[in-house]
Amino acid sequence: MTGTSTRADRAAKTSGRDAFPGAFVLPRILRRPMRGLTALATGRVEIRPHAGSVAALAFLVATGFYGMALGGHTGAVTQAVTSGAGFALEDVQVSGNAETSDIDILQQLGLDGSTSVVAIDAHAARAKLMELPWVADAHVQKIYPRGLSVRLTEREAAGIWQHGEALSLIDARGDVIAPLTGARHSDLPLYVGLGADRHADMLEARLLFHPELRGRVKAAIRIADRRWDLRLNNGVTIRLPDSDIGAALDRFAEFDAGRDVLSRDITLVDLRLEDRVTLQLSEAAFERRQEALEARAKAIKAEKRS
Fold first, then answer.
1. Which domains does the chain have, with CATH numbers?
2. φ, ψ (nearest 5 deg) of residue 27
């Protein structure tokens, strides 16, 4: 009986369409909303009390949030609300910083007395800390309800680079860290000249095999961005070749074994030629040598006369 009735209804609907071939039929997806609007308009749907007030309030709240987002005030409002709710930042724990001051860290993060822990973006805070010259890595963690942990890994200065009149601290790769200020890092090796910063790591790698010589190097001077001159702490200069620095240093170490050449009265050691080590005497040593040669020549003449 039910199946018969359903078929009859369908037949009636079909016959209705056939009876009014020009009638507009709503798409299926719009029929349910239209029936709801029709029921609302005819009074068949009952609206609960205060529904209009609630809808108006929701509209105002949504408009307010949209306005804050559009004007860029969402962060400020969040900070104000959450700070008043007991999430105001009161304790900042900083570790791993030897060259970067706590004040620089707080200023970089923009922290003040009204900062809320909830409003802090840890990823954005890390990105800001990475902009500081000494910072190699940073870790920022929020500690609820009122704390923040900042842990830094700093770069290590390996030398001083002099370019023109400026002095900059560089790391082991030759990258500039920051300008040299004060005498705290004055004991680091000095690299002078164009390209000295980029090639400092290669020179250091060779000098590691000669620790006694490395400890006496006061400055490494880059000559025409091709080769190095090493200025020792006693004023002696060692001229290195354009290439194969390691072989030149090995040759000098073999030549110097048991002689302690660098402690003698010389001013220059030239290692640019592969088959020899050339020494240059100081003026005083040269004069003494000349006097010794002249005295020897006189002695030889005197022996011949006798």
1. 75-154 (3.10.20.310), 159-286 (3.40.50.11690)
2. -60, 155
